[in-house]
Amino acid sequence: MARVTVEDCVDKVANRFELVLLAAHRARSIANGSQITIDSENDKNPVIALREIAEKTIPPDDMREGLIHSIQKNVEVDEPESAAAPMLPVDRRPVLGRDDQSSDTVVDVITEEQLLRGMESLTPTEPSANGGGNSGVGSR
């Protein structure tokens, strides 16, 4: 049965190596208690994972993101380079809480009612064409 399932999965995930990685990751998550999205029919976790991929009950992109997240150990944070943003001279650097009040710009004041009226005008009156309240779960 697994060979037929692999053949069914190749058109969903074209790269066989990636298919093996995704199915193995999904099988491990099932073993750790993740909810199964198909009828198990007494199959083992790797076969269940392949059948889920074949039936598209879990999007491959979601599985790929989960796999990447599980493999990552360190997340790089892009720090600005010193040459990219030159420092201001000490006499021109702002000091928090002690800035010059005369250089402040005028800030518009709005009441709560004006804010709510403005937000209501942005709310769509009809459901959108790309979903309309249905989260897409279980629909084809």
Topology:
Layout: H1 2-9, H2 16-31, H3 45-54, H4 60-71, H5 112-122
Helix pairs in contact: 1-3, 2-3, 2-4
Structural commentary:
By secondary structure, the protein is an all-alpha fold. The chain has a domain at 2-71: RNA polymerase subunit, RPB6/omega (Eukaryotic RPB6 RNA polymerase subunit, Alpha-Beta Complex). It is 41% helix and 0% strand. The protein is built from five helices and no strands. The protein has helices spanning 2-9, 16-31, 45-54, 60-71, 112-122. Helix 1 (2-9) packs parallel to helix 3, helix 2 (16-31) crosses helix 3 (45-54) and helix 2 packs across helix 4 (60-71). The protein is elongated. 9% of the residues are buried. The model has no long low-confidence stretch (mean pLDDT 78).
Mean pLDDT reading: 78
* Percent helix: 40-55%
Structural class: mainly alpha
Number of strands: 0
Supply the CATH architecture of the domain at 2-71.
Alpha-Beta Complex
The number of distinct helices, counting runs of at least 4 residues, comes to 5
Percent of residues in β-strands: under 5%
End-to-end C-alpha gap: 25 Å
Low-confidence stretches: none
> Could you describe the largest sheet, including whether it forms a barrel?
none
Find the CATH topology of the domain at 2-71.
Answer: Eukaryotic RPB6 RNA polymerase subunit
Question: What's the shape?
Answer: elongated
The CATH C-level name of the domain at 2-71 is Alpha Beta
Rg, rounded, reads 27 Å
